[in-house]
TrEMBL record:
Subcellular location as annotated: Late endosome membrane; Membrane
Native organism taxonomy: Eukaryota, Metazoa, Chordata, Craniata, Vertebrata
Chief localisation class: membrane
Coiled-coil annotated residue ranges, if any: none
UniProt-recorded name of the protein: Copper transport protein
Species assigned in the record: Scophthalmus maximus
Length: 153
């Protein structure tokens, strides 16, 4: 039966039978791979958020809210409802197609991100301290590198 407590060891089996780590060199390489996968996971999150910003539909017009009744009566006298409401335009066919392509790309990225997230979770569930630290440090570095790029992509 597998131990359910964290252990400091240089031998562990990660995810698949063929990823059987024995020795410090193999552990160092495995921690590096898990570290890089975690940095990639964080970068995918930022990329998906940026793509989501491009998919936002145009927001409908919301009339401003006033606290004083005199402002409301002034507005009612000066504008008719039809002059304040914007005219909705029909999206072009290429715009709709681009929107679907972006949505499809975001869906594929989501699938990769979820798969990678579960794989990293299973790596942590090996209860090896070195693998755990690789995931934590990779997540911190990935966030540190990716987050400033959030508004620039």
């Amino acid at each position: 039966m597998m131990s359910m407590t964290f252990e400091v060891s240089s031998s562990v089996t990660l995810l698949f039978d063929f990823w059987n780590v024995r020795g410090p060199g193999g552990m160092l390489l495995s921690v590096l791979v898990v570290f890089l996968l975690t940095v990639l996971y964080e970068a995918l999150k930022v990329w998906r958020v940026n793509l989501g910003g491009q998919l936002k539909p145009a927001e409908p017009y919301a009339a401003p809210t006033f606290l004083h009744s005199e402002c409301i009566s002034t507005l009612e006298r000066s504008f008719s409802e039809s002059s304040v409401t914007p005219i909705a335009s029909q999206p072009s066919a290429s715009n709709t197609r681009d929107s679907w392509l972006l949505h499809g790309l975001q869906t594929v990225l989501h699938m990769i991100q979820v798969t990678l997230g579960y794989m990293l979770m299973l790596c942590v569930m090996s209860y090896n301290v070195w693998i755990f630290l690789g995931v934590i440090v990779g997540s911190a570095l990935g966030f540190f590198i990716s987050f400033p790029l959030l508004g620039q992509m």
